[in-house]
Amino acid sequence: MPRLIPQIQSIFSHIPIFSKGSRLLSDRSKSTLKNIIKEFVKPYVEQYRLEHVELEEVLYAYELRGGVRVKIGTRGCDVLYVVEEPEVSLEGIDHVVDRVLERVLHGELVANPRGIVSWNLSSLEDYLYFKIVSGLGPIAPLILDPYIEDVYVSRDVGRVFVVNNKLSWSGWLKTNIVLEPSLVDRVVVSISRRIGKHISQAYPLSEGAYGGYLRVSLVYGDTVSTIGSSLVIRKKSASTWTITRLIEEGTLDKFIAAYLWLLLEERGWVIIAGHVGSGKTTLLQALLTLIPPGRKVVAIEDTPELSGSTGIWEQLIEKTEVFTRESQIDSYTLLKFALRRRPDYIVIGEVRGVEARLLVQASRLGHGVLNTIHADTPESVIKRLMAPPISIPKNLLNNIWSIVVVGVDPKGKRGVLALAEVDEEAEPVYILKNPDSGVDPVEIAKSSVRLKRGYRGVDLQAEIERRALFLEKITEKGVFEIENLVEELSRFYSKGLELEELKEKEARVTG
Question: Does residue 350 fall inside a structural domain?
């Protein structure tokens, strides 16, 4: 990550005594530098406002780190997200400026980009320091809020909008944070530098990962946008979404989880489909926590969002040239490379183009395959895979084992909306079409063509129920961390092996 306050660094880089981080600067020189830093900090304090909003009904109220309070409530027909933070004047940030100056003088990084989640914000000064040196400025409270999923602001409006997972059914919520146009420009440039990308009127688009758990998409100026500079920040959970967390929250039924677990164990090809923000990546991450320990997983993404597996984890990221925007190492190249690294499972964060053709080859070679795709039904998944630019022949799509469609139901709750397998004619065969009517392991066992090949009907039902019971028990025990889940899976498989050995002994005796 570039040094924070990079303008200061560049201004004084020609002065040897400064570039060496010397302590020999006179008090007068330090005072001058402090005033310059203060000028750079000034917009982060003065060029935005928090509107005062009287809510008619408060739906949620909670406190964030750094003394920031959040209220979500209604006013008229609107649902509003209201931030209240301690009032600070420009004169009140002297200690923060001193901290920045001290680090700049010693040639140190002012902040660790991967440490955003774990920053110690025990005081108002810590909070102000975080706002300034992270480059996030007025949107910093939204990054600290664990319930915020997406943040959006544009230069022409200046008002910040958010998606809060407590009220995901409401879509984008209007906040009381309003930035001046010049500050939107500044924040866009600042964040672009922190993700190591160049952005300007000549190269107005930039995207990447920041802070270990933020995915940012940036536009600068009006070259390609009629609304000027804008940013979208998508947050992923600071902790890994495990299968037990989804079951605990009611997002995933235990019998569906057991069915998908069996598909994974058989190294099938599972596609997760849905719209933007439907929970595709969350379910993909959760399924990765059902991979049997000792199996190798290679994940390929353009921007890192997945965070691990219960198997042996390897993550490959596309490499994009900063100035030309040409992808030097794209997902197709990485996928060919991954096939030579003896993976048991290959994961593609999102399928968009010709790399999907290699997934067919990977599946035919016996690799387990997991990927997400933008589509809203099993039928539309098949159509999209057949259409350009992917263009997979229909007769090869029968390599797909299962399509899981996720989204938000009419009640505003996320979950699995449909579940289908793909038959020999590459047509969807529904395992589950209406989750609201309940999930029956008997019907799953009857409908699953793929799993019947390895199990007899009654055995398959019993196995789905056995695994569902196991998942239910460890969920009740509070096994939500991936490390603990690995231990439980190892016990599950060791007991399974013991049962198989006992059955073999009994068969030999009775034989």
Answer: yes
